[in-house]
Amino acid sequence: MIVSSARTTVFDIDGTLCFDGRTIDGRILAAIESCERAGHQLVFASARPVRDLLPVLGGAFPAATLIGGNGSLVSVGGEVRARAVFEAGDLGKLLVEADRYRAGYLADGPWDYAYTGPADHPILGRVDQGRLARRVDLADLPAVVKFLVVSAADVTDMAALAEAGRVLGMTVNHHLDEGLIDIAPGTTNKWEALASLGIDRYNAFGNDINDLDLLRNARHSVRVGTHPGLDGVARVTVVADPEAVAAEIARLAAATDAGRPVSDPRTGAR
To answer: Quick check: is 245 in a domain?
Structure first.
């Protein structure tokens, strides 16, 4: 278990730190380094599995805790473990629904993955960039920690499939802008994974609906971009631009160095 600290800072990856699906701008990396020097414990929490977080970080921040699969995977001290998996019966029901709507999917195991979607789908550009895993049949995965629907026979079928996942009691994030349905077992999310590690006081940066609870429960929260589902949740909103994100991270580090609470730069509110 990790000792909770107000100097723990949690970063989502895609759309928060990474804007091209592959890299993090050097200005952002430098700002995160300043947080680390100021004594912040770093956590990177993503919808990506841990396998796909590593290439984006590019070896930076090896001491950081990683949360993958929207909370179903954690890596502490370099040891990856699954903390939430689909029960066999639940997965079987989900597969029946996926077959009903002729859905293509990416199913992640603790490390390897199965994929049945289109060969030219953009998601493949973000899967196993480091060539660290194997693509296998679903039956060959020891467990499934995340199920990402990437296609269906019709766009209306995607909404129906998302609802089917909710009815089955799963955590469902339907990303309408990307045409993806992110399904996790049970009530798994990033904030719940943090709590399981003993982290209850932290700062957070996020951009999407799967960051809702993460931001809502943070000591200091920053929304990157303008996702309407996060209206009124974060204390600060910055544009989805590397320079703006880097500046906000650096401001947090500077406040820590000065021994004062971070405040909203526009209002001075703490």
So the answer is: yes
Query: What CATH number has the domain bearing residue 221?
Result: 3.40.50.1000
User: What domain count does the chain have?
Assistant: 2
Rg of the Cα trace of the chain?
18
Confirm if 252 and 258 have CB atoms less than 8 A apart. Answer: no
Determine contact, residues 11/205, Cβ cutoff 8 Å: yes
Q: How far apart are CA 262 and CA 225, in angstroms?
A: 20
pTM of the model: 0.87
* Structure tokens belonging to residue 111: 């490390």
> Exposure pattern of 14-23 as b/e (b: 16+ CB <10 Å)?
bbbbbbeeeb
Q: Could you read off the pLDDT of 80-139 as tens digits, one per residue?
A: 999 999 999 999 999 999 999 999 999 999 999 999 999 999 999 989 999 999 999 999
238 and 215 assigned to the same domain? yes
Does residue 172 sit in the same domain as residue 92?
Answer: yes
Residue 168 domain-assigned? yes
> Tokens in use for 235?
């204390």
Please indicate, yes or no, whether residues 64 and 93 belong to a single structural domain of this protein. no
pLDDT in tens, 3-39: 445 589 999 999 999 999 999 999 999 999 999 999 9
Amino acid at 31: A
Residue 252 contacts by C-beta under 8 Å, 6 or more apart in sequence?
Answer: 9, 35, 40, 203, 220, 262
Asked if residue 105 is part of any domain, the answer here is yes
